[in-house]
């Protein structure tokens, strides 16, 4: 991929922990991982050594001793822990600016701080379920895939924020095939893995145990995986999910495609709770994000850990530098 340039970090919800962990991440990384923050400097912690920049190209030099800010003027001030809908338009503009700059080749990747959807809806009529769908719309993509990644594991849920009872209805052969294909392409194009190995979890306990615990595996999942193997994809499964995530099993694949939210997220959050990174596959640019929310309850207290944001920035940098 070899995308040059610094990483564009959108500000996220100003009343959450986004501004303070951005400054902590900068202090930990400095020039080792150049990025710039897009937002209103009034929302940063008091005493932050800010350098306002006019273009992303200025960020690398600034990072050594100053926190680089591409300035936006927001409509409201900030009370930590209490979202102000007057800031909604600015939050949205921050995301749009990050995408525009990476599409123009001025930034290498987009990293997004957590947003508060209700404030965006109340203040700007935000019409998307979340960050990912908004980014897909900005990129003109109808289908993208969420990956959670850490040093120990990469997982992709085929279905995400739906009730468990709805999973068998939503999970179709077309959806699963598309999820696997986007995952394989992302591993090749953004992670630099020439021949990605993908393990697919079964839907039912013990992957159905020959139909004793559900028939979806026999009805169509086995056949789909077999067909994709015949097409040349290095894919295995369906595997019983309870034996897919121990160390020896993880060594045999580059990513695991899971059937529903908790099947994917429980293992990665158990293995590496503080350092998991949200990656959106299927976009024409790199997008990472820390795997946590706005944390209004601790915003402004100094307790927030920047670990996940640091990993998100470092992963974006590695992805941008991959062949």
Structure description:
The chain is α/β, with parallel strands linked by helices. It has two domains: 185 residues, Isopropylmalate Dehydrogenase (3-Layer(aba) Sandwich), CATH 3.40.718.10; 119 residues, Isopropylmalate Dehydrogenase (3-Layer(aba) Sandwich). The chain contains eleven helices and twelve strands. Strand 3, helix 2 and strand 4 form a beta-alpha-beta unit. The mean pLDDT is 95. It catalyses: 4-(phosphooxy)-L-threonine + NAD(+) = 3-amino-2-oxopropyl phosphate + CO2 + NADH. Keywords: Cobalt, Cytoplasm, Magnesium, Metal-binding, NAD, NADP, Oxidoreductase, Pyridoxine biosynthesis, Zinc. Its cofactor is Zn(2+); Mg(2+); Co(2+).
Features:
Isopropylmalate Dehydrogenase; globular; 12-stranded mixed β-sheet; 2 domains; 323 residues; alpha/beta
Shape annotation: globular
Helix content: 25-40%
Low-confidence stretches: none
How many strand segments? 12
Question: Beta-strand level of the residues, as a percent range?
Answer: 15-25%
Proper CATH architecture of the largest domain: 3-Layer(aba) Sandwich
**What is the H-and-E element order?**
EHEEHEHEHHEEHHEHEHEHEEH
Summed over residues and divided by their number, the pLDDT gives a mean of 95
What top-tier CATH class of the largest domain fits best? Alpha Beta
- The CA-CA distance between the termini, in Å, is 5 Å
Strand-pairing-aware structural class: alpha/beta
CATH topology of the largest domain: Isopropylmalate Dehydrogenase
Number of helices, where a helix is a run of at least 4 consecutive DSSP H or I residues: 11
Task: Give the total of domains.
Answer: 2
Strand neighbour order, sheet with most strands = 3-4-2-1-5-12-11-6-7-10-8-9
């Amino acid at each position: 991929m070899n995308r040059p340039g610094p990483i564009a970090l959108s500000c996220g919800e100003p009343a959450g922990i986004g501004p303070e962990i951005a400054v902590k991440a900068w202090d930990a990384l400095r020039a080792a991982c150049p990025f710039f923050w897009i937002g209103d400097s009034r929302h940063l912690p008091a005493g932050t050594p800010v350098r306002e920049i006019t273009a992303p190209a200025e960020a690398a030099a600034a990072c050594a001793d100053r926190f680089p800010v591409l300035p936006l003027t927001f409509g409201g001030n900030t009370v930590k822990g209490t979202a102000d809908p007057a800031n909604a338009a600015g939050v949205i503009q921050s995301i749009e600016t990050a995408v525009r700059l990476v599409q123009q080749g001025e930034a290498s990747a987009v990293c997004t701080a957590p947003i508060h959807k209700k404030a965006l809806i109340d203040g700007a009529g935000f019409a998307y379920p979340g960050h990912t769908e908004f980014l897909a719309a900005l990129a003109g993509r109808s289908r993208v895939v969420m990956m959670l990644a850490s040093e120990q594991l990469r997982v992709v849920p085929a279905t995400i924020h739906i009730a468990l009872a709805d999973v068998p209805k939503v999970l179709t052969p077309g959806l699963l095939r598309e999820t696997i294909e986007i995952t394989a392409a992302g591993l090749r194009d953004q992670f630099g893995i020439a021949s990605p190995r993908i393990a697919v979890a079964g839907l039912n306990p013990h992957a159905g145990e020959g139909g004793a615990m559900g028939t979806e595996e026999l009805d169509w999942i086995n056949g789909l995986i077999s067909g994709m193997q015949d097409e040349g994809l290095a894919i295995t499964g369906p595997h019983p999910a309870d034996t897919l995530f121990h160390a020896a099993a993880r060594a045999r694949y580059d990513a695991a495609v899971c059937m529903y939210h908790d099947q994917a997220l429980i293992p990665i959050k158990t293995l590496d709770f503080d350092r998991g990174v949200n990656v959106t596959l299927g976009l024409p640019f790199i997008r990472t994000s820390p795997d946590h929310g706005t944390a209004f309850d601790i915003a402004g207290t100094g307790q927030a850990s920047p670990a996940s944001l640091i990993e998100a920035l470092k992963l974006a940098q590695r992805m941008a530098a991959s062949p």
